[in-house]
C-alpha cells in the first residue's frame, strides 16, 4: 500500500514539474522593473500641491519603455484614497538638460532656460506634450505596451552634444480632508478657493467658474466651519517603470494625445505664451437636471502620421461616461469607458473614476492613415454641473518600418509557439492524469479482492457451550 502511494506521489510531482517548467520558459526574461518615489510633498487639510520636479529618478540608457504606473502613498507606504487626497493628475515629460546644469529645483531659472523639450507625437501645440499621464483612474488603468512594441528613449544619436536626457514629473494633488464641498474642491471651483488671480498673477475672467486656474500650487479649498484636523502629512507619488534594453527587433511607437476642446488653431513658429492655443485642456459641463441627459462634445483632429494603432485610452473626470475615437469613415478606433468605485478603500473610492478601459487591437487590425481626420467624442452626465473636466484620448501608433513586419511576425510566431506548448502540456497532463486514475483504480480493485479473500479464508468463532 505504501509503495502505491509513493508511486502516485511521484507521478503527481512529475505533472507539477511539467507545468512549472513550461510556465518559467514562457516568461519574458528581459523585462526590467524599477520603483521610484517622487520628492516628498506636504499637504494640509484643503491644500493643493501642483509642483514640477526636474531631473527625477528614471531608468537610464537606450531603452524601450513598456509600462508606467503610479499612485499616491504616505510616509509609511500606505495607499492614500482619493477622498482624502484627490489625484487630479500626474504627468511625466521628457527633456534634454545641459550637463553643466544639474538641478532638481523646479524654480531653477538656469535649468528652465536650458530646456530642450522632447514632446510626444502631438498634436497639441503648447500643452499636453507628456509621455505618460493619468489622474484618479491611475490604479486600475492598464499602461502596458505589448510586444514587439515600445516607446524608444535614450537614443544617444539624438541627444545634442553637451546635453543629457532627463525627466520632469508634475503632480497635482488636492487634500480634501475636512473640506466643505469635496466634489467642488476636486473640480477646482473658484468660489471654494477664494481666488481672483491665477497662478501667474493674471486676473481670472468672470465667466471662468472652475478649473486649473483656480487650484494652483499653494491654494486652499474651503474647510467646514469649526473643522480641526490632524495637521499636514508627507506624501509621495510612487511610480513603477518597466522597460527593456533597446534592440532592432523592437517596433517603436509614437504617442498621440488628442483633446476634445481642440479648436484646430495653430500658430507657426510660436513661442510659449500664457494663453492656450488650440487645445484648451478643460471645459465645463452644464447641468440639464436629469441623469438621462448629458453633454456630448465632439471635435475633428488631423493626425500627421499614420500606422497601426496598438493602444488607446481616454482620460475623464468624475461625471464622465465614456469617450470614443472614430476614423474618418466613421469606424471605431477605440472606445474607452470609466469604472467608478463603490467603497472607501484606495482603488475603490465611491463616486470617483478609478479606472478607464483600454484598447489593445490585434497588430495590423486597426490602422490610421497619414493626414487622416479623426473624430473624438467625450461624453459626460448632465445630472449636475461639472467644472474643469477633461476629455483627452491617448493612442500609440506604430509607423511602418522596414523591420516592423518581421518583428510582428516574429512575435506572432512566438505566441503561436507558446499556444502549442500550452496545448501539448494540456495533452500530457491529461494523459498522465488518466494513467494515474487508471492505476489507482487497478490498485483499489486489487486491494478489495485481497480483502475479500482474507475474509473468506478466516475460521468462524466457536460458541461456548
UniProtKB/TrEMBL annotation:
Keywords: Membrane, Signal, Transmembrane, Transmembrane helix. It comes from the Eukaryota. The chain crosses the membrane at residues 421-443. InterPro entries: Stress_up-reg_Nod19 (IPR011692). It holds the Pfam family SURNod19. Residues 1-23 form the signal peptide. This is Stress up-regulated Nod 19 protein. It comes from Amborella trichopoda.
Amino acid at each position: 500500500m505504501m509503495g502505491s502511494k509513493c508511486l502516485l506521489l511521484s507521478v503527481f510531482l512529475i505533472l507539477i514539474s511539467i507545468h512549472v517548467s513550461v510556465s518559467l520558459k514562457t516568461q519574458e526574461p528581459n523585462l526590467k522593473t524599477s520603483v521610484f518615489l517622487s520628492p516628498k510633498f506636504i499637504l494640509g487639510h484643503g491644500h493643493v500641491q501642483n509642483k514640477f520636479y526636474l531631473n527625477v529618478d528614471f531608468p537610464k540608457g537606450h531603452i524601450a519603455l513598456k509600462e508606467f504606473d503610479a499612485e499616491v502613498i504616505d510616509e509609511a507606504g500606505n495607499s492614500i484614497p482619493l477622498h482624502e487626497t484627490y489625484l487630479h493628475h500626474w504627468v511625466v515629460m521628457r527633456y534634454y538638460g545641459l550637463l553643466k546644469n544639474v538641478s532638481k529645483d523646479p524654480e531653477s531659472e538656469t535649468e528652465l532656460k536650458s530646456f530642450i523639450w522632447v514632446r510626444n507625437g502631438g498634436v497639441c501645440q503648447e500643452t499636453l506634450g507628456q509621455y505618460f499621464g493619468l489622474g484618479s483612474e491611475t490604479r486600475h488603468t492598464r499602461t502596458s505596451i505589448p510586444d514587439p512594441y515600445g516607446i524608444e528613449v535614450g537614443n544617444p544619436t539624438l541627444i545634442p552634444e553637451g546635453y543629457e536626457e532627463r525627466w520632469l514629473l508634475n503632480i497635482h494633488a488636492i487634500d480634501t480632508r475636512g473640506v466643505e464641498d469635496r466634489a467642488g474642491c476636486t473640480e477646482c471651483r473658484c468660489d471654494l478657493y477664494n481666488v481672483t488671480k491665477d497662478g501667474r498673477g493674471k486676473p481670472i475672467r468672470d465667466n471662468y467658474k472652475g478649473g486649473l486656474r483656480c487650484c494652483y500650487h499653494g491654494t486652499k479649498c474651503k474647510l467646514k466651519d469649526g473643522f480641526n484636523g490632524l495637521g499636514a502629512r508627507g506624501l509621495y507619488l510612487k511610480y513603477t517603470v518597466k522597460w527593456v534594453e533597446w534592440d532592432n527587433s523592437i517596433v517603436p511607437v509614437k504617442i498621440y494625445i488628442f483633446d476634445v476642446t481642440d479648436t484646430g488653431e495653430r500658430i507657426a513658429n510660436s513661442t510659449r505664451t500664457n494663453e492656450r492655443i488650440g487645445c484648451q485642456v478643460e471645459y465645463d459641463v452644464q447641468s440639464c437636471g436629469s441623469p438621462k441627459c448629458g453633454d456630448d462634445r465632439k471635435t475633428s483632429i488631423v493626425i500627421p502620421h499614420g500606422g497601426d494603432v496598438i493602444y488607446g485610452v481616454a482620460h475623464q473626470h468624475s461625471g464622465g461616461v465614456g469617450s470614443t475615437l472614430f476614423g474618418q469613415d466613421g469606424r471605431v478606433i477605440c472606445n474607452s469607458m470609466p469604472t467608478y468605485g463603490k467603497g472607501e478603500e484606495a482603488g475603490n473610492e465611491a463616486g470617483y473614476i478609478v479606472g478607464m478601459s483600454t484598447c489593445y487591437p490585434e497588430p495590423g487590425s486597426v490602422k490610421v492613415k497619414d493626414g487622416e481626420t479623426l473624430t473624438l467624442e467625450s461624453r459626460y452626465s448632465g445630472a449636475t454641473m461639472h467644472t474643469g473636466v477633461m476629455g483627452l484620448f491617448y493612442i500609440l501608433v506604430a509607423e511602418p518600418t522596414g523591420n516592423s513586419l518581421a518583428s510582428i511576425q516574429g512575435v506572432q510566431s512566438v505566441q503561436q509557439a507558446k499556444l502549442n506548448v500550452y496545448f501539448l502540456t494540456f495533452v500530457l497532463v491529461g494523459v498522465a492524469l488518466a494513467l494515474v486514475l487508471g492505476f489507482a483504480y487497478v490498485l483499489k480493485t486489487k486491494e478489495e479482492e485481497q480483502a475479500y479473500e482474507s475474509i473468506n479464508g478466516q475460521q468462524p468463532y466457536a460458541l461456548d457451550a
